[in-house]
Amino acid sequence: MIKEAAKYKDEDKRYMKKVEARNVLEKYAYNMRNAINDKDISLMLSSKENEMINKEIDLVLRWLDFNVLAE
């Protein structure tokens, strides 16, 4: 059992790094959405800029949903 654990140790580390990277990207996307919806920041953006940013955020979140196994 110890040999088996050692065998998968590196694989587990790679998987954890992938999960952490996905979580960071997802958190960043939601933070951006919250930021552009902030009253002060939204006043600085035109409606076209706001729409463009929202589309890009949606694109990132959809990519994360459809590419669960992406590295």
Concise summary:
With about 70 residues, this protein is mainly alpha-helical. The protein is about 85% helix and about 0% strand.
Helix content: over 70%
Beta-strand fraction estimate: under 5%
Tally of DSSP helical segments: 3
Give the CA-CA distance, first to last residue. 28 Å
Overall residue-averaged pLDDT value: 91
Described by the principal axes of the CA atoms, the overall outline is elongated
Radius of gyration (Å): 18 Å
Content-based structural category: mainly alpha
- Counting DSSP E segments of at least 2 residues, the number of strands comes to 0
Low-confidence stretches: none
Strand and helix order: HHH
How many structural units, i.e. domains? 1
Q: In this structure, how is the largest beta sheet organized?
A: none
